[in-house]
Amino acid sequence: MPGSVSTALDRARPMSGSTLLNKVPAITATFWLIKVLSTTIGETFADYLAVDVGLGTAATDGAMVTLLAVALVAQLRAKRLVPWLYWLTVVLVSIVGTQITDFFTDTLGVSLYVSTAAFSVVLAVVFTLWWRQERTLAITAIDTPRRERYYWGAILTTFALGTAGGDLATEALSLGFRNGALIFGGLILAVWLGRRLGLDAVLAFWIAYVLTRPLGASLGDLLTQDRDFGGLGLGASRTSLLFLGVIIALVAREQVNANRHGIRAKGEAPAVSPHRDYVWAAAAAVAVVAAAFVLAPAPTPAAAAPAAGTGADAGKGRHVNPLEADATSPIGDLRPFAVIVDDVAGRTKAGDLAGATARIKDLEVAWDNGEAAMKPASPDDWHSLDSAIDGALTALRATPPTKQSSLSALTALQSTIGALEKKQ
C-alpha cells in the first residue's frame, strides 16, 4: 500500500454524504478491555440462549441477527458517537460473527481451513474497496456514512475471521483453550511491541482487532468449562452476566464522559487523561478476575474424589483430568455422557417421551460444557459424536416426538459412543 496510511489520514477529506463527527471511540486501554469482554460474550451468550435457556440454535440465530440489524440501523443513522449504542452494536456483531462461522462449520460442514481463507479474502476485499474510495483505513476518520459502512463491514468480517482462525489454530494444533489464551495474548503483546517500534498504527489496530476474537473466546472457555476439563466451571450464564455487567459499567462511564465533555474532534486532547483510563481499565480487569474466582463453584465431591484412571494413576487417590489421562476415547472420557444417554433411552423405551426430552437437556448442557476441551483433541471424532447427539435432540424435540424415531436416534448415538470408546 503506497505511502503511510496515517499521513493519508491527515489529508483525507470526506468524499460522500454529510460530514459527521468521528463515530468510533478513542483507542484506549478501556476500549481494548471492552473489546475483549465483548468477544467473550459472543462466545458464551449465544450458547447460553441456545442451550441453557433452550431456545435452540435456529431461534437464537434469528433473534441475534434481528437485534443486530436494528442496532446497526440506529448506529448508522446517529450523527455522532453514542457509546452505549456503539458497544451494543459491537457485542451483537460479536455474537453474529461467531454464529456465522459456527453455521459454516457445524451446519454446512465447511472446513475451518476453507472458512478461514474465505473470510480472509472477504476482509481483503473490504479493505481494498475502502482504501480505493477513501484513501484511508484509519478508524480516527469514520466521519462519513460511506466510511462507516465500510467500517462495520470490516468489523463483522474480523469477528468471523477471528472465530474461524482461532478455532483452526486450537483444533489443528490441539492447543486447547488454556494454551490458546496464552498464545493469542502473546501475539497481541507482540503487536503492541511492534507498534512501539514503528509498526503502522492502522495495520497494528486491525491485526490486534482480529486477534482479540480468539483471545476472548479462549478466556471465555477458561471460565465456562468444567473443572474436569481445566476450567473454572462458571458456565455460560455466569460468565455472560459477569462480563456484561463489567461492560455496562465501563460503557456507562464512557457515556457520562461523552455527555459531559462532548465528542473530541480530530487533533483535540482526550477528555480523560490516558493515565486515568489505564487505572479504570486495570481496576475493571482485576474486578473480573476476582469475581470469576469468587463465583466459581467449589469442586464437587465427585470431582474431588479419586477418579478411575489408568496405569500408574489408578488407585493413587489423585484426581485425573479425563481428557488427559482417561483412555476411553480419542476425545476423553465419554462415560458421563453415556450414562445420560442410557437413561434417556430407558425412559424412551418405557414410553416416557416427556421425561426423556427433559433428561436429554442434561446431555446437551454437559456436551456444550466440554466442547472447548474435547474438540481440539480429535475434531473429526468430536464432530461425529456431535452429529449423533444433534440427531437425538432433533428426534426427541420433534412436534410431536415418536418413540420409534427417538429410539432409532438414541441407538445410533449409543453406537457412536461405543465406537469411539473402542478407538483408543
Automatic annotation (TrEMBL):
Residues 304-327 are annotated as: Disordered. Keywords: Membrane, Transmembrane, Transmembrane helix. It holds the Pfam family DUF347. Residues 304-313 have a biased composition (Low complexity). Signal peptide: none annotated. InterPro entries: DUF347. The chain crosses the membrane at residues 20-41, 53-74, 81-100, 112-130, 150-169, 175-194, 201-220, 232-252, 278-296. This is Membrane-anchored protein. It comes from Terrabacter terrigena.
